[in-house]
From TrEMBL:
Domain of life: Bacteria
Cofactor(s), names only, from the UniProt record: FAD
Residues in Acetyl-CoA dehydrogenase-like C-terminal domain copies: 5-101
Organism field: Blastococcus brunescens
Keyword Oxidoreductase part of the UniProt annotation: yes
Listed Pfam families: Acyl-CoA_dh_C
Cross-referenced PANTHER family: ACYL-COA DEHYDROGENASE, BROAD-SPECIFICITY LINEAR ACYL-COA DEHYDROGENASE FADE5
Keywords in alphabetical order: Oxidoreductase
Protein name stated in the entry: Acyl-CoA dehydrogenase C-terminal domain-containing protein
Claim: Oxidoreductase is one of the keywords in the record: yes
Length: 105
């Protein structure tokens, strides 16, 4: 996403309207960064859970750690794959919305 956004920023030296493409992608980038950091934190928690499950743990703790692993698996298989489509959207951002006459609003 950053590569595409920097490309739009560089293109703004020739065509200032390319800055609109950068602006249209900022929220998407921030949300993607949040998802990525959340995934990283979940993976770190899963490492702790796996280490704990390799030893002797009580029944309640076992369920807790297994829940951590399940949450990580869900997030990594259901949420993180969306980042690929979000990147594609950023790469293909155009200024169609910015070219509409103000009277349309």
């Amino acid at each position: 996403m950053l590569t595409a956004m920097f490309g739009h920023l560089t293109a703004a030296q020739e065509d200032m309207t390319s800055l609109y493409k950068v602006a249209q992608s900022t929220s998407r980038l921030l949300l993607a960064a949040g998802d990525l950091i959340t995934g990283w934190l979940l993976v770190r928690q899963s490492e702790v859970a796996l280490a704990a499950l390799a030893g002797e743990v009580g029944s309640a703790d076992r369920h807790f750690y297994e829940g951590k692993l399940a949450a990580t698996r869900f997030f990594c298989t259901q949420v993180l794959p969306r980042l690929t489509s979000e990147r594609t959207i950023v790469e293909n951002t155009d200024n169609a919305l910015m070219e509409i006459d103000e009277a349309a609003f």
